[in-house]
Amino acid sequence: RILVAGELNVDLVFRDCQAFPAPGREVLAEDAMVVPGSSSMICAMGLARLGNPVAFAGKVGVDGWGGFCVSALQGAGIDVAAVRRDPGLRTGITASFSTSSDRALVTFAGAIGALRASDIDDALLATADHLHVSSYYLQSALRPELKSLFARASALGLSTSLDPGFDPEQRWGNEWPCLLSEVDLFLPNDVELAGISGCESPLDGLRALDNGRTRTVVKRSRHGCATLDGAGGLLESPAFAVDAVDSTGAGDSFDAGFLHAWLRGLPLAEAMRWGNACGALSTRGVGGTARQADAAEAHALLGS
Ligand code: ADP
């Protein structure tokens, strides 16, 4: 089974706003909804939808939003025994405002930042075959503890993967090589890869992070994904053509598809296609989890 550890939050989505509100003003939105939002929750739900047994480790407050997150996970058949509800914390919320041409986000991290490596003890790790960690988490109290968390997981025989959160202030600096030395699979998007490696091109970025252990696959939106081939060149996998409605969380659904195939031992190029297929199919609905692929839909797109 797959243990996904990371943030749990809700997204408040305001669609087709007349404009972004100027200070002191109010604008109307055409549509609004509340959806499960976080990177790790979208990945976990994508994995469950593909038929994988999944457990989640995370933290929420004792408030309605926390209950919403836990119910969403349970509704997807995910084991929530390791989701802690902390009365001293409030559940994280992201408000997303879109106009016809642009999008703006406001995030309150809340309980997201409070998960510690000690919440993910060896007994919990021992119930899983794979540990996946993602996003905001990396800028929280857990950050200095992540390397030892991955080392503990490896020592217990789990494979490991990491999807980095966007780090606009580059607070991670040169911590990356050290952390990645403990990770089997690294899944940044192209903006994150450029920020982490300091390299403009994906090929240079992938080469810069190559440590002989970690398989890095970079997600490139409409260009699909890429990784290093055996000769130090670029192995690319093109995106599937879809009528995208909303690409929120496409990277997390990509992670689900890639992990689903990779953990079954499929060849790397096939796992990349699975990632692209699940990323593309997730763009059919508004919010990251509305229209994630099940295995039959992914097979149909993959022609397999
Ligand atoms: P992130 O959500 O992390 O920014 P991307 O935008 O790169 O990640 O999307 C992840 C993956 O989802 C891409 O590698 C691609 O396979 C797929 N994808 C995203 N947007 C589209 C799109 N408009 N059409 C087809 N596939 C897409």
From TrEMBL:
Key words of the record: Kinase, Transferase
GO molecular function term, any single one: kinase activity
UniProt keyword Kinase, yes or no: yes
Enzyme Commission (EC) number: 2.7.1.-
Every Carbohydrate kinase PfkB domain range: 1-289
Superkingdom in the source lineage: Bacteria
Main enzyme class: transferase
PANTHER family, per database record: RIBOKINASE, SUGAR KINASE
Official protein name in the record: Carbohydrate kinase family protein
